Amino acid sequence: MSQAPTNQVRAAHRADTAAVVRTLTRAFHDDPVFRWLFPDDATRRRDTARFFAIYAGLDHVPAGRCEVAVTEPSTGTVRGAAIWHSPKDRRAAPLELLRTAPHYLSLFHRRLPRVVRALAHVERQAPAQPHWYLADIGTDPAARGQGVGSALLRSGLARADAERMPTYLESSSVDNIAFYERFGFELCGEITGTDYPTMYRMWRPAQGA
C-alpha cells in the first residue's frame, strides 16, 4: 500500500502563483460565497480564477501573506493554500483595495458596488481587538481528507500563538464549524442582513505560555 504524501507548509513564492490560483479556484468553485459572487454556472470557474489571480496573484502572494501545503519529498505539488492577515495587514487593507480596484471593476462591472457593500458589511463585523485573520483556506478537491487543511491551519495558528494573539475567521459553511472547533475556535455569531450568504464568525482566544 502506497503511503499518503506528506504535507509541508511554506510561504508561497511568486513561482507558485499559478498553482495557488488553480488550487483556490478548484477549492472554492462550489462555495456559497463564490456562487453568490459568480451565479452563472457556465462562467464561474473562469471568473473565480480571475478573482484569485487578482486577490492572490497581485496582492497576497507578493506581500508574503500566502502559505501553501506541498507534497514532499518528490513533486512539490501545491495541494492547498491559506491567506493570513496579521493585525498590521488588517490596518493596511483599505489601501491595497484601492490599488487593485481597477482589476475588480473589470471583473465585476456593474455588480462591483453591490459586492463592495456586502464585503464592507462583513468587514464591519470583525472584532476590534487586534488579531490574526484567516482570510481564506482551501484544499484541492483531489487532496481532501489527507490533512492538508489541518497542516495549513496549524502553521498559521503557531504564528499567532508565538505572538500570543487571538485569531478570527468567517466560515461560509456550517459544515466546517466542527473542523475549526477542533483547533480551539469558538462560534461567536452569524453575519446576516444582506443578500450575501450567511457567514459564521469564529474566534480563537490567544494561546501560548
UniProtKB/TrEMBL annotation:
PROSITE patterns: GNAT. It comes from Lipingzhangella rawalii. This is GNAT family N-acetyltransferase. The lineage of its organism: Bacteria, Bacillati, Actinomycetota, Actinomycetes, Streptosporangiales. InterPro entries: Acyl_CoA_acyltransferase, GNAT_dom, Trichothecene_AcTrans. PANTHER family: GNAT FAMILY ACETYLTRANSFERASE (PTHR42791), N-ACETYLTRANSFERASE DOMAIN-CONTAINING PROTEIN (PTHR42791:SF1). CDD domains: NAT_SF (cd04301). Gene3D superfamilies: 3.40.630.30. It holds the Pfam family Acetyltransf_1. Residues 68-207 form the N-acetyltransferase domain.
